[in-house]
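note to self: dont lose this again. the chain is below, predicted strucutre after it. 365 aa total, dont forget to put it in the shared folder this time
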Amino acid sequence: MFCHIWIVTADTYYCRADFGITLYNLCNVLSSSMSVFKLFCLLVHRKDFLSLVLYLRRKFLHGKYDDYEKIILNECKGTSTFYICTFTSLSNATLISYVISPIIVNIGKNESDRLHPFNVRLDLPLTMTPYFEIIFILQIFFLYQTGICYFCFDNILCMMNLHVAGQFRILQYRFENMKSTIDMEERSGNLNVHSSRWRNENKYYETFKGYVREHQNLIAFCDKLEVVFNFFALGQVLLFSLLICLDGYLILVADEAPSRRFIFMFHIIACIAQLFMFTYSCDCLIQESTSVAMSVYASPWIDMSMNKDGAMLRKELVLVIARSRSPCCLTGYGFFNVSLETYTKVLSTAFSYFTLLRQGSTTTH
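---
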């Protein structure tokens, strides 16, 4: 990836007099730099990141669920699969466009006029065989590595956010149906449900405490998710505006070859899809973590007497509701909460940049 950044940066320096080529290379540098940035963000927190992955696998994907909870989990898996497959396909289409574009341009050209996906500045006959083929394959390898790091971390972040949001939905269901769950357990044990009111209330309180611990574990998971991905999210949001702006300019305004326009058509669609996937999954986390308060209030606390267990349950219920009013969310290094509102703001900023860039290029011409 560093080799790829070096190649594109060197070409930007030598072609800095050409505004169109400079913007083309700048877009490539930003995309490659984003991949390196994501990789280093997670390398710094690699232990926490791996612990999140293991916890997700052990507790979320292979936990014990009833039929309705399995439906929720399958919905999370289906949504994650849809977004991941869509974004990965668009990213791979962009990578393929980078490879196919020079192949189409080189059709019918002499060896001395052939082009690589990216211009290389070396004192060698790079357009002649076998130098041309070697450099071409190396650039494909560099591009592939950059593309993998571009989308793989976003995919796993989306999956984590959606599954945590699903766990909050499952927790809401458990709070709301706590009474029926306890009655079902007692019936399966061949016990009289109404044999002892005190025993039932104690059972309610113990079950409620277990659900509160689950809520605390989900909050702790979200806090660790915030530690690992907060700087990652800040870089994402800041670079998205520039990338979408540059892609739009290179498609609509710049004097680019049709084969290159396809590259940036796929790239801008991939960026918009990536931004939506990123912000939507974070927004689901906010909404579902906040909705826990209503579910807790719908639990059977009103049927319990004011004995020791009933009083403790009501006190802890108030604490859970108060905590749920502060949603679990992913922030841009503490500067802002990432949600669907972020999606609209980034697109609005990108459009403003595009307008300024177009006006500036028109004035220059």
